[in-house]
Design brief:
Blueprint: H1 2-24, E1 43-48, H2 55-63, E2 68-69, E3 77-79, E4 84-92, E5 99-103, E6 111-118, E7 123-128, E8 143-147, E9 153-161, E10 166-167, E11 171-173, H3 175-210, H4 213-232, H5 258-270, H6 273-276, H7 278-297, H8 309-330, H9 335-358, H10 365-435, H11 443-474, E12 482-485, H12 486-503, E13 520-523
Antiparallel strand pairs: 1-2, 1-4, 3-10, 4-9, 5-8, 5-11, 6-7, 6-9, 12-13
Length: 525
């Protein structure tokens, strides 16, 4: 277990190095060089509710002073909106580099149009790099080449629209920096999809072999997460083959609830909530059904205004996953601790990503990949939890087999004891038979011999009862009800316990009123 955790943290460290290295190469739009030799952070924003204004019309809005200055542009979120957001920035290039690549870490921009005006007011560059237009650079992220002369001042206008939650973050990189950035990005996504694919295949094979249903729920959840990462990560646009309903990043809202629904189903199954907490299990079942209805509704054209509430459902799903984990831990399920740790890491990473989408945090590369890193950690930990669960099931199975074997041994011992008692008992009965034929036996001896006979008959009855029980247990004999005398049964009780009662100075007696008839009951004798 400790070795596996160490491997996990080593994986985390390697992924963090990818993210940190990538961020170190990124330049914000208004920082034209690493050294900050020329910084002009006069960034302002204009919102076009119709999204139909042309660039010439937007220039008139700029001259009218309708662009609003914004500080920390990357921390300004617009949520789900149909508006087009225009960003304006004045840039002075004091470096010796002329060729730059401008882009964004957000792959969901359906429209990202760039307009560059020189110091004379002439439009020198106009390019579209959103998902709705062919990109000049064949990448999943919007990026385009621009030319900025040394010592020249420029005004850059950027128009963006997104079908998802809109927040703004733009980068300006040299060719070498962009190449290094994309290389590290490719390494990360190769590590992510490779790790998740290996885990899914491994657990799928385990399900086929072991027929343990938790494995298939694990596969469904992992596939839902990987599919979301694939679509929201901007890979759909560049794919050779497209799913009929998932052709672009803008279609991500259609499957945005699938991971939450799968996580609820997986939690109910893994934590055995139907046994541990039946009410919580039923509630989470209804929550999954509600999520399915919402997911279907999101496919309709009227769902745009309600897409923001998908995050609320995700939050509810995470809360009840945590509640179910805590309930399972309190019931003594040790594997639920690993399950809770996995979900804790994933919830933290997704929270960071959501804050990036809302504009609270800058949507840097590390923020963008945070849910993927959390998902990888979660998948590894949940795979470990499944292994621990199988180990626990095997341990309980061995214990059950040992108990069954111990019970069989006990039954075997009981049969041997009965057999060994039967031999001396037959001798006792023979001696009694011989003594009963004596003619001149005194009354006291006769009384004692009667007690011997009664005791031997009782022992023989017990042996017969044990043998009958064995016959019942093996299915060779069924219960047979016969009339039994209640008076005789009470007298037998008095007889067998009289001596023990006398040893403890207890008087044991059974008296039946003379007028009362003997009571006959039906029982297996």
């Amino acid at each position: 277990m400790i070795k596996q955790i160490l491997i996990l943290f080593a994986l985390l460290a390697s992924l963090s190095s990818f993210a940190d290295s990538a961020d170190s190469e990124v330049l914000r739009l208004h920082e034209i060089s690493h050294q900050g030799k020329s910084i002009n952070d006069s960034i302002s924003v204009f919102e076009d509710p119709t999204g139909a204004l042309s660039f010439a019309e937007v220039q008139l809005k700029d001259k009218a002073g309708l662009f609003i200055p914004r500080e920390n542009l990357h921390r300004n979120g617009f949520g789900f909106t149909r508006s087009a957001i225009w960003v304006k920035s004045d840039v002075l290039n004091t470096t010796d580099k002329h060729d730059w690549i401008i882009g964004s870490p957000r792959p969901d921009f359906a429209i990202m149009d760039i307009f560059i005006i020189d110091s004379n007011g002439a439009l020198i560059t106009e390019t579209s790099i959103g998902t709705s237009a062919p990109r000049p650079i064949d990448r999943r992220l919007p990026a385009g080449r621009i030319h900025l002369k040394e010592g020249e001042a420029y005004t850059i206008f950027i128009k963006v629209q997104s079908p998802l939650q809109l927040s703004l973050s733009f980068h300006l990189l040299s060719e070498d920096e962009y190449l290094a950035f994309t290389l590290k990005e490719s390494n990360f996504f190769s590590a992510y999809f490779g790790t998740v694919s290996a885990l899914l295949l491994y657990n799928l094979f385990l399900f086929i072999i072991l027929r343990y249903r938790d494995y298939i729920f694990y596969v469904i959840f992992g596939f839902a997460m990987a599919l979301n990462a694939y679509i929201q990560g901007g890979f759909a646009e560049g794919a050779m083959f497209h799913l009929p309903f998932l052709k672009s990043t803008g279609d991500a809202y259609k499957i945005i609830l699938f991971p939450s629904i799968a996580s609820i189903l997986y939690t109910r199954s893994f934590l055995r909530l139907s046994t541990v907490a039946p009410r919580l299990n039923r509630f989470m079942g209804w929550l999954a059904i509600l999520g399915a209805f919402i997911a279907v509704f999101l496919w309709t054209d009227n769902s745009f205004a309600f897409r923001a509430y998908a995050s609320a459902f995700d939050a509810f799903a995470v809360i009840f996953v945590f509640v179910g984990s805590i309930v399972a831990i309190r019931s003594g399920d040790k594997t639920a601790q690993v399950f809770l740790l996995a979900w804790g890491l994933f919830a933290i990473s997704v929270s960071v990503w959501v804050l990036g989408n809302m504009g609270v945090l800058e949507k840097s590369h590390s923020i963008a990949i945070s849910p993927l890193v959390g998902n990888m950690c979660e998948m590894v930990l949940m795979s470990i939890a499944l292994a621990l669960r199988i180990k626990e099931i095997d341990r309980k199975k061995v214990q059950a087999e040992m108990k069954a074997r111990e019970k069989d041994n006990l039954q075997h011992l009981l049969r041997m004891v009965c057999h060994d008692i039967s031999n001396p008992l037959s001798i006792i009965k023979t001696v009694f038979f011989l003594s009963s034929r004596r003619v001149n036996a005194n009354p006291e001896e006769t009384k004692q011999w009667e007690r011997v006979k009664r005791a031997s008959d009782s022992i023989e009855g017990i042996i017969n009862q044990v043998r009958k029980y064995e016959s019942f247990r093996s299915g060779k004999l069924a219960f047979e009800l016969k009339p039994c005398s209640l008076k005789t049964t009470l007298e037998d009780v008095e007889f067998f316990f009289q001596t023990r009662a006398q040893e403890k100075d207890v008087q044991l007696s059974c008296e039946v009123s003379a007028p009362w008839p003997d009571i006959i009951v039906m029982a297996d004798s």
